[in-house]
Design goal:
Blueprint (H helix, E strand, L loop, with lengths): L1 H22 L1 H9 L2 E7 L6 E2 L5 E13 L7 H12 L11 H11 L1 H5 L4 H8 L5 H11 L2 H4 L4 H14 L7 E4 L5 H9 L7 E11 L6 H4 L14 H5 L13 H5 L1 H4 L4 E7 L5 E8 L6 E4 L3 H21 L8 E7 L6 E11 L6 E5 L3 H4 L9 H11 L8 E3 L2 E3 L2 E3 L8 E3 L1 H7 L2 H11 L15 H11 L25 H8 L8 H12 L3 E3 L4 E5 L11 E4 L4 E4 L4 H14 L17 E10 L11 E11 L6 E11 L7 H37 L1
Parallel strand pairs: 2-8
Antiparallel strand pairs: 1-6, 2-3, 3-4, 3-5, 6-7, 8-17, 9-10, 9-22, 10-11, 12-15, 13-14, 16-19, 17-18, 20-21, 21-22
Helix pairs in contact: 3-9, 15-24, 17-19, 17-23, 18-23, 19-21
Keywords: Cell membrane, Cell shape, Cell wall biogenesis/degradation, Membrane, Peptidoglycan synthesis, Transmembrane, Transmembrane helix
Pathway: Cell wall biogenesis; peptidoglycan biosynthesis
Family: Belongs to the transpeptidase family.
């Protein structure tokens, strides 16, 4: 009976095995051989930036890099073992290793001890699903003694730093372990030991290269490192657009604003894996393409010259004048008044180095549109045109310039006793304050009597500001860079403040607003949107050439002045008189490019980096100009906040403005000469042939 029962059982087992092999064998075989396709996107270098003449401003520098790819079936213990091997042949920065990282490492190295940190009762909560694993893990971390993690050697700390980087990546996506300062010895050592370092590879990475150093650095912006990856605040937005957590993205200004253009098309690789997670094969779906290139409106050579002029003039003023202690910045903008293309966007700032205590000159181009100041008489062109438009004054109208007394307050022009009976053109030429005061008093419906109180309609503030905004003063210019500010309008509506508004000593304006304002006057009344990006182009392999144009940024008129053409021409004429004998910018007299200009000096208060001196009375200096007067091809705005204390100081605004325009036209002449020489050489060669 026993033999029969055993025989029967074996017969049933054989029949069952036969059924599985014969009937269901193919199904099980297919299941075992079933693979999974996992697509991984690999980042590519960012697009480059060129100046308007095709010179590279921002490039990508190749770097030797060591990467780690975590496979689906790789355990934490295996990763730690690889990290420890790698720590013996490369050096890494360990400054960012925290106690938490050390505890994670201890947990992997000591699994039994880690398990014993949780009581049986607590494990029962986990088994009953009352607690999740995260709670258990956090309890384990809290119960690890300091003595357990304080004995690690330098080699251990290196291994922890490497493991941390290895563990931060996605499965099958290469994660950078080290890409800076990888020595040839390290690169070779890792390459020779790849068989003993599963998942580790040597490759080429990139970093941003700024060809002109710090020039324009603040408006070019920054790119996150591979360690930083995606910014936390925008993580979901980027993840939804096929970014990985450790992808590098633009963090500020052009790098940020044109992220979609510069980021490029990722290389895509399909990894075929079996059920265990082993990679069976890789298939490249797309090679990827580096980001598209930006061509800027900036002339890099001109930009360098402008920056040098600003630096030299600031240092010279500091050296020669003892009342310039609070002056720490200066700005100069050159713009094409007909297209809004910015040829130079220069800003410099003196900053005291924390380590050396010495003043250093740093790029502050972003300050041209993110900071605002009282700019003084430079805005008087807008005041005159507002007077024409409202009917408060008519072209050529004479007005007596003499000190004004309103109640007990005396206000007048910069010359003691005033300028006498002058018209609008002379008022611009000599920068009369009184002419502007009486103009806005009329706009406000006021009646001035010497020594008597003055009553005005507060609505005049809105009238003047609305008119000024048509020139770009007190509103966003629309520049294609983030974080543009509008400036600050004053809140009081008393007569004296209206008079200050008329001469640029009440509301604050940004340097880029001044550039747009003078451009609007120069081109005959069109407020053009300023921009620093000229074109977007396809990337090509030849680093010295530009690819085909994808998009060209067209000039954009934001609004046109609702004013007569002859009014604008009259203000242009007044600006031209400013540069002649007797004008406040007579240092331009005789310039071959025949400019027009308006200077500005504003009594203001210091609100810079030294908070202890906030509220100190200072003088702000400014200058707007365009040239040539009869056919403007360039407009400039110069602003030097907190230039000096007291009644007199350096004419740094005029020095910068004159030298900048000289540099522009000298460079233009030089290039035309070089072009002519090349043309002559070409003609000679053709003749010889």
């Amino acid at each position: 009976m026993l033999f029969f029962v055993v025989f029967l059982l074996f017969s049933i087992l054989i029949l069952r095995l036969g059924e599985i092999q014969i009937v269901f064998g193919d199904d099980f075989k297919r299941e075992i051989q079933r693979t999974e396709d996992i697509t991984v996107s690999n980042p590519v270098p960012r697009g480059k930036m060129f100046d308007r003449n095709g010179n590279v401003i921002v490039d990508n520098t190749p770097l030797n890099a060591i990467t780690y790819t975590k496979y689906q079936n790789t355990s934490q213990t295996e990763m730690v073992e690889t990290a420890e091997k790698l720590a013996k042949i490369i050096n890494v920065d360990t400054k960012k290793v925290r106690d938490r990282d050390k505890k994670d490492y201890w947990m992997i190295k000591n699994p039994d001890e880690a398990k014993n940190l949780i009581t049986k009762k607590e494990w029962s909560y986990y088994d009953d699903k009352k607690w999740d694993y995260k709670k258990i893990y956090n309890l384990q971390l809290d119960r690890i003694k300091e003595s357990e993690i304080n004995h690690y050697s330098k080699e251990d700390i290196k291994a922890i730093a490497i493991f941390k980087k290895m563990n931060s990546g996605y499965a099958l996506a290469p994660q950078i372990v080290k890409n800076k300062d990888v020595s040839p010895k390290e690169f070779a050592a890792v390459s020779e030991n790849l068989e003993n370092l599963p998942g580790v590879d040597t490759t080429t990475d990139w970093e941003r290269k700024y060809v002109f150093g710090d020039t324009l650095k603040t408006i070019i912006g920054n790119v996150s490192s591979s360690e930083e990856g995606l910014p936390k605040d925008d993580l979901e937005k980027y993840m939804a657009r096929d970014y990985s957590r450790n992808d590098r993205v633009g963090k500020s200004y052009l790098e940020f604003k044109y992220e979609d253009v510069l980021h490029g098309q990722k290389a895509k690789v399909i990894n075929k894996t079996d059920k265990a997670g082993n990679v069976l094969a890789q298939e490249v779906v797309s090679e990827g393409q580096r980001g598209k290139d930006l061509v800027l409106t900036i002339d890099a050579e001109l930009q360098k010259k402008v920056e040098k002029i600003i630096e030299e003039e600031m240092w010279d003023a500091k050296r020669r004048f003892g009342n310039t202690g609070l002056m720490d910045r200066a700005f100069a903008i050159l713009i094409d008044p007909h297209t809004g293309e910015i040829l130079s966007l220069a800003g410099k700032q003196l900053v005291r180095d924390n380590d050396t205590g010495k003043l250093e000159m740093r790029d502050y181009a972003q300050g041209t549109f993110t900071t605002s100041y009282n700019v003084g008489s430079a805005v008087k062109g807008a005041t005159i045109l507002t007077g024409y438009k409202t009917g408060a004054i008519y072209p050529g109208e004479p007005i007596m310039d003499a000190p004004m007394k309103i109640g007990q307050t005396v206000k007048g022009s910069w010359r003691a006793g005033g300028f006498g009976l002058i018209n609008d053109l002379t008022a611009l030429k000599v920068s009369s304050n009184v002419y502007m005061f009486k103009t806005v008093i009329r706009i406000a419906g006021g009646h001035y009597v010497y020594g008597q109180p003055l009553s005005i309609n507060p609505a005049a503030f809105n009238t003047v500001r609305k008119s000024f905004s048509q020139f770009g003063l007190g509103v966003r210019t629309g520049i294609d860079l983030p974080n543009e500010m509008t400036g600050f309008p004053g809140s009081e509506t008393i007569p004296g403040k209206l008079m200050d508004l008329a001469i640029g000593q009440y509301d604050t304006y940004t340097p880029i607003q001044l550039a747009q304002y003078v451009s609007t006057i120069a081109n005959g009344g069109n407020r053009m949107q300023p921009h620093v990006v000229k074109e977007i182009r396809e990337p090509i392999m030849d680093n010295n050439k530009l690819g085909p144009v994808i998009e060209e940024i067209q000039p954009k008129v934001l609004n046109t002045l609702d004013m007569k053409e002859e009014w604008i021409k009259r203000v242009q004429q007044g600006f031209h008189m400013v540069t002649q004998t007797g004008g406040t910018a007579s240092y331009f007299k005789g310039a071959s490019y025949d400019p027009a200009a308006k200077t500005g000096t504003a009594q203001a208060f210091y609100y810079g980096s030294d908070r202890s001196k906030w509220g100190t009375p200072v003088m702000n200096l400014s200058l707007v100009s365009f040239a040539p007067y009869n056919n403007p091809e360039v407009a400039i705005a110069v602003v030097v906040p907190w230039a000096y204390q007291g009644n007199t100081g350096p004419s740094i605004n005029g020095n910068i403005g004159k030298k900048v325009l000289d540099a522009y036209f000298d460079l233009k002449k030089e290039r035309q000469s070089d072009k002519g020489k090349k043309g002559d050489e070409q003609n000679t060669n053709n003749t010889n042939q």
